[in-house]
Amino acid sequence: MVSRFVVVPAVPTETGSSRKGMRGYCKTATLGFNIYDNEKKLRSQATFLSREEAETECEWLNLRRLQSVSSKPDTL
């Protein structure tokens, strides 16, 4: 079973650019980690500086979701 929320590297942000002849190069840096929602196919806006922080939040979100699903009565 795939977890709904997982930790992913943050989207790289542009930190500058340089030119070499006719070519331009963009310098990017990944700054932290995001949480990705596998159900909604969305990346969270919150950015965590360490993977441990992101994993803690991710575990909490997955646990909260499981608790809400298990507390709902089965409907057919």
Structure overview:
The protein is α+β, with helices and mostly antiparallel strands and 76 residues long. The protein contains 1 helix and 5 strands. The strands form 2 sheets. Strands 1-4-5 form a 3-stranded antiparallel beta sheet, with helices on one face. The chain has a two-stranded antiparallel ribbon with strand order 2-3. 7% of the residues are buried.
The whole-angstrom Rg is 18 Å
Mean pLDDT: 85
> From N to C, what is the helix and strand string?
EEEEEH
Which regions have little confidence, pLDDT < 50, spanning 5+ residues?
none
Percent of residues in helices comes to 25-40%
Estimate the strand proportion: 35-45%
In the sheet with the most strands, the strands line up as: 1-4-5
For the record, give the distance between the C-alpha atoms at the N and C termini, rounded to a whole number. Answer: 22 Å
In short:
This protein has 76 residues and is of the alpha+beta class.
Q: Layout of helices and strands, plus pairs?
A:
Layout: E1 5-9, E2 13-20, E3 23-29, E4 33-37, E5 42-43, H1 51-71
Antiparallel strand pairs: 1-4, 2-3, 4-5
Summarize this structure as a short list of keywords or feature phrases:
76 residues; alpha+beta
